[in-house]
Structures are given as C-alpha cells and as structure tokens.
Specification:
The chain is α/β, with parallel strands linked by helices and 430 residues long. It is built from 21 helices and 13 strands. The strands form 3 sheets. A 6-stranded mixed beta sheet has the order 1-6-5-2-3-4, with helices on both faces. A 5-stranded mixed beta sheet has the order 9-13-12-10-11. It has a two-stranded antiparallel ribbon with strand order 7-8.
C-alpha cells in the first residue's frame, strides 16, 4: 500500500498550507505535481532540499514529480522574501546551471521514462522564449487583474519594506510562474504545484489562470520555510550557503553542518530530510535525551543526509576526518586522508613551512620542528618528547634523536604535529 503523501507531510512537519481538494485528488488518481527551481547557481543548496524531498516523497507515494528549472523566470528573479532585486543571468549561464542541477536531482528522484511515476526535468525557457511581449500580455495577462497581483504578500512586502520599490520586471514574475502551471496543466496533465510558503501567491496565480482559461481545477501545497530554533536562516553559515556540489561545500563540511545542529533542530531535520521511519526517529530522540553529550541524534542525521547526497564513502571519509581532532583515529587512517579533506579539517590550525629538500634529508625531528618555528627551540621540543606530549601524524614521538623523512608526508606534502591533546600544527613541505 502506498503511503498517504499529505499525511506523511503533516507528520514530518512539512505541510504549511494546502488548497481544499488536494487529498481527494491524490486519492483519486496518479497525480502529476511540480516544484520550480530558479537556476541562479550551478548547484542546489540545502535550502532547496525541502522542496526536493517533497518531490521524493510524492514519487514514493505513487505519484509523478516534475522539476521545472526556471530558465526564463531565472532571468527575472522572484521577489518573494527578497529585499532587493536579483542580478539577472544570461542564457548561457542559466543553461549551464540547469545541466548541473539536473544531474544533482538524479540523486533524489527517479527519472525512469518507462514508469508512469517517472520524474521529468523541464526548463520553462523552452515554452517561454517564443512568446512576444505583446502576445503574452494579450493572451495571458488579460486574465489576471493588477488588483489581484498587487494583493499578493510578496508584492506588498517589497512595496512596504524596500526604498527601491519593485520593478515591473519582478512584478511580472508571478504571472510568468502562473503561466508555467497553465502550460504544465495543458501538456503534462499537472494539477498540483508545490513549493515553499513564500510561493503561495505565485501558486494561486497559476490555479487562477487554469480556472479562468481552461475552466480546470488545479491545486497548491506549500511547506514551511525552515528556520533554526533560534530563528536564524536555515542552511546558512558565516561562509554562506551549504551547497550540494562538493566543489563549493566539501562532503566533510556538509557532514559537519549537520553534526553541529542543535538538539531540537536535529530532531526536526531528521523528520524532514531523512527516510527514517517516524517511530525510529522518536526512539533516537529518546535515546539522545538520555545522553545528549554523545550527540547520537546529530551523528545519525549527518550520516543519513550525507549518504543520500554524497554517498557512503564520503560519510566514511568525513567520520574518519572528524576523529582526527579528537585523537581517536590511527596513523594509518590519517595517512590515507585526501589533501582536500585534511585541509578542510585543519582549517584555522597554525601552519609552518619548510623546504621539501630538508625533509628529504631525513633530519632529526626536534631540529626540523625548531627550524620551522613550530617550537621556539630544540630544548622545548625535547622537553615535550620526554613528557610524552609530542605526536607526529598521530604517532607519539618517544626518542629525542628520532629522524623523519619524506615518506612520512601526508599527500606527499604535510606533517601533522600534535602538542598535548588539543594543540595542532600543520607543517607544509614545499
């Protein structure tokens, strides 16, 4: 028996608003539903994941998802929840972004063309680029009044809160998105549009066009905009968005984002972003509450989402890397760590440089550390060795006369020097 899509959204905290008739539609037929994504970058970020997970759950409930990339609307920019107008992108950039995002979506939904629930990836530029301005306002614009458009929250918010006001370009966005829904209703039999709660106004414009032009019934459903427990914006760090593309956010940094979430956030995110059954999530939360310092909830959350996005191998690497700074991993594991992950893990750690030729000459460890500046003197290094407090590459140095060579370099370039339990230094051989 297929899952009840709406009921699952409710139980997972993923339902914000829904038009009457949605549940009846889903019970009556295999329903085609779409989510729009403006390809303003060549990667999804985790702010997109809520909508993507809705498509994923819709498909698993026996329905047909469509992802619409806004090649046309992406040239304009949606004013919803924005305080100022976006930079407009050219067609070549948008096409590049579209291709990249399409590949990413394949990680989440099944695009099997032979299945009646197989997903589709479309670009609204393909049905918008032949429209002339005059034709569009004559054929489509005449069906929606300015009064109707002005009443939308997204419009009023910009008019009330921005000194720059709202350009006609942005004002027209809801009409273009509304036409997307009309086009998909005609060509794909799409009767349901989904999105974040900030999209409600755009969605209802689409249902209104379908009602007025086609005398058809169409529906909208939104999910809440996800925020952190402290009210902060979800998916943002001091460095910006957390991206799906490993070029912009490494699997390690992606894993760490979820590891570092608060308890209540982790509990909510577990329900939204993982495939775990609700009963298992409740059991995990209860277990976590008994010993929150172990962060079992965060660890499971990070493992589940990182596996879905980057694969099991990336999780193993991220978890191995995480153990470096906590002293739990072995020398062998450290030596197998790739350069990118090593540098990610050790970001902010003091670095020192030394000539590679000097390392190749197999110097005494205390000499190398003093020459590089890691220690102020050889005597200081010897004293630490005697006290059992010096490790190189996670191996304790016990002999003040020990030497080291190029074969000890991680990725052929690095030495990880540890002073005591928590003080790390990175020696770079160049």
């Amino acid at each position: 028996m297929k899952a009840n899509f709406v009921e699952e959204l409710k139980q997972r905290g993923m339902l914000h608003q829904m038009m009457p008739g949605v549940e009846e539609l889903l019970a009556r037929e295999v329903t085609t539903a779409y989510v729009g994504i403006d390809p303003t970058a060549d990667s999804l970020h985790i702010g997109h994941l809520v909508s993507v997970m809705m498509l994923r759950r819709l498909q698993r409930a026996g329905h047909r998802p469509i992802a619409v990339l806004g090649g046309a609307t992406g040239m304009i920019g949606d004013p919803s929840m924005k305080s100022q107008e976006r930079n407009l992108l050219d067609l070549d950039t948008l096409r590049h972004n579209q291709e990249a995002i399409g590949h990413q979506l394949e990680r989440f939904i099944d695009f099997d063309r032979k299945s009646n629930t197989g997903a589709k990836l479309l670009n609204n530029y393909d049905w918008m680029h032949d429209w002339s301005f005059l034709d569009f306002i004559r054929e489509i614009g005449k069906h929606i009044t300015v009064n109707y458009m002005m009443a939308k929250d997204s419009v009023q918010r910009r008019l009330d809160g921005s000194a720059a006001g709202l350009s006609f370009t942005e004002f027209s966005y809801q009409l273009l998105q509304g036409y997307d829904f009309l086009h998909l209703y005609r060509t794909e039999g799409c009767k349901l549009q989904m999105g974040g709660s900030d999209q409600w106004g755009n969605i209802t414009t689409g249902t209104e066009l379908i009602r007025r032009i086609e005398q058809g019934d169409a529906y909208g459903l939104t999910c809440p905009l996800i925020t952190k427990a402290d009210g902060g914006k979800f998916g943002k760090t001091e460095k910006g968005n957390i991206w799906i593309d490993a070029r912009y956010t490494s699997p390690y940094a992606f894993y760490q984002f979820w590891i570092n979430t608060g308890d209540e956030d982790a509990y909510r995110y577990m329900k939204i972003f993982t495939e775990l059954e609700l009963e298992e999530i409740e059991a995990l939360y209860k277990e976590h509450s008994q010993a929150p310092h172990l962060r079992a909830l965060q660890q499971r959350l990070a493992r589940e989402i990182t596996t879905m996005v980057h694969g099991a191998e990336a999780v193993e690497t991220a978890e191995e890397a995480t153990r470096i700074l906590f002293g739990q991993n072995t020398h062998a594991a450290l030596m197998n760590l790739n350069e990118a992950t090593l540098l990610e893990v050790l970001e902010g750690v003091p670095t020192y440089t030394v000539a590679r030729s000097r390392v190749e000459a197999q110097p005494v460890v205390v000499d190398l550390l003093a020459e590089s500046g890691v220690f102020a003197s050889k005597g200081e290094a010897r004293k630490l060795i005697t006290a059992g407090g010096l490790s190189i590459n996670k191996e304790k140095v016990t002999d003040a006369q020990a030497t080291i060579g190029a074969d000890a370099l991680i990725s052929g370039k690095y030495l990880l020097v540890q002073r005591g339990k928590k003080n790390y230094y990175l020696l770079i051989a160049e």
